[in-house]
Structures are given as structure tokens and as C-alpha cells.
Design goal:
Layout: E1 3-7, H1 12-23, E2 27-32, E3 43-47, E4 52-53, H2 55-60, E5 63-66, H3 79-103, E6 109-115, E7 127-128, H4 139-151, H5 153-158, E8 161-167, E9 169-171, H6 176-186, E10 202-204, H7 205-217, E11 223-227, H8 235-245, H9 257-264, H10 269-272, E12 276-277, H11 280-284, H12 294-314
Parallel strand pairs: 1-2, 1-5, 2-3, 5-6, 6-8, 7-12, 8-11, 9-10
Antiparallel strand pairs: 3-4
Amino acid sequence: MKTILITGGSGLVGRKLSRLLIEKGYKVIWLSRERYIKAEIPRYRWDYQRNEIEKEAIEQADVIIHLAGSNIGEDSWTRLKKQNIVESRVQTAQLLLDTVKSMDKKLDAFISASAIGFYGIKTTDNIYTEEDNPNESDFLSRTCRKWEAATFKFQEELNVRTVALRTAFVISKNSDAFRKMVLPTRFGLGAPIGSGNQYLTWIHIEDLCHLYLKAIEDTSMQGIYNAVSPQFINNADFMHTLAKSMRRPFFMPHVPSFFMRLIMGEAADMILGGSRISSQKIQDAGYTFQYDTSEKAIKASLKAIKEKEDKKRKR
């Protein structure tokens, strides 16, 4: 039974992935702010700002899955927030690398999150693949480059099989971003954001977690893969699909770009721009998406939200 060490295990993806891995017979441990080894999922302490880590966790690990990182959707992108977004991804990866090196530990694989922000926030006619290197200068693109550079040091310096999953917007019952779309739509106030022509690239959380599982088990996987659904859909059509799935009207005018920037500042660019991203490489590697259309993903998540709300009401 292999042991999978997860950073960022308490996050949206980490919790779901941990449950999946345990179901599949893996032992799962987390690196966390607090040590709690008697928890259902044992937690070992680390603090990248102090360069501290409990080596006991690294010693046990066969595979490290690196999901840690400050939530880019929380708070305005102040100078301090931007610094935290970058350091919580890059310095954590460096601390893991340094620790593995110091212990002369041999890993089966190092698997890290990345993001489709790598391709930039412009809306273009391009369909980006993993071979593309658009060299955009916006904050998210620069951050992803640093993130991936830190990730692939495991391959370059330790000859460890390394995989990075450039992840899209995650559809899940527990996603704050998705629920923020659901709430106004529930009251008939769903609307396209900005022009509505920008592409909204997404993936259902079940597919994302199964991609991580595949990255663990498929030893031929190495390098960068887009963790995105096969469907191309723009923001207006996605919001219309959401309203239709909820059986709500869809007649509100577009939410103006300037209003989004007023509320979110620079972070609004994540929502106001976006091009098509190809999933062909991971499909060619043998992965079949369970949720290949936004309608399937939305309906499954809405059903899960309703079940969750019904459970709360019965308590």
C-alpha cells in the first residue's frame, strides 16, 4: 500500500482527492499548519515561512501531491496578497525539494497543481495546448511559470517523475466560486459577466481527482497536462446553461466589466478573459471524462448542493 503525502489537503480538491485515494486503498497523510497524527488522516506540521517541516511525513511518502497555495479568489490582489499567492506555491515546493534532497529520499512521483492561467487572461481565437508558450506578462501567467519551474526541479535535480496539472475552474458542490454563480441564478438574476464572449474553461471535481489518481498510477505520465473538460463554452452560454438547469429565467443584462473590476480589482481579469484550452493530450493518454459537458457537471453539482441543504434542514 503506497503512502500519498498531500499538501493543501484541507482544501476543496485535497479533501475530495483524499477520500478517493483512501477508497482506492492508499494511505493518505497531510502536511498541515498543525500536527495531529491521530486524526482520520494524519497531519504533520510544516511552515514554509520558517523553513520548518516534519521529516517523518517525507520519510513515509511514496508520492507527494502538491496542492498548497493561497486561494487566488479570496481578497483583493494587494501587493501582500500577490506575494502570498506566489510564495505559498513556489517556496513550499522549494522546501519540499530541499527536504527530500537532505534526506536522500527516493520518491515514485511528484505531482503538482498548476493553472490554466499559464496561458494568459486574454480572449483570443487560439486553442491552447501544452506545447504553447504564449509568454504573457499578466500576474497569473507569471505566477504559473514560477510555480511550474519550482515543480520541475524534482525532475531536473532528483530525476523524479514529475507531473503538473494545469487546472481550470472547478465545478463542485463545495466550490465557493460555483456557489456564487448559483445564488443569483436561483433568484432569476443570473447573467453573463463582461462581454460574455470569453471562454470559461472548467472541470468537474470528480474528473480532476481521477486525473490525480491517473497521474499516480500511470507511470508513463510525465510533464504538463491540461486538467480541463473537452467542452469549449463561453461565459454567456455557461451562465445560460446554469439558469436552464435550475429552471430559472435568463434575461438579465450583462454584468459590466467595470463593475467587476470595481469589486474585485485586478483579480476580475480571471473572469473577464479566457481562451479555449485543449484536453486532447490527457485524452490521448487514455483518460475518459465522466463529465464532458457543462450541463452534466452543473446538474450533478446542483443535485449534490440540494442533497447537502436537505440534510442540514433535517438536523
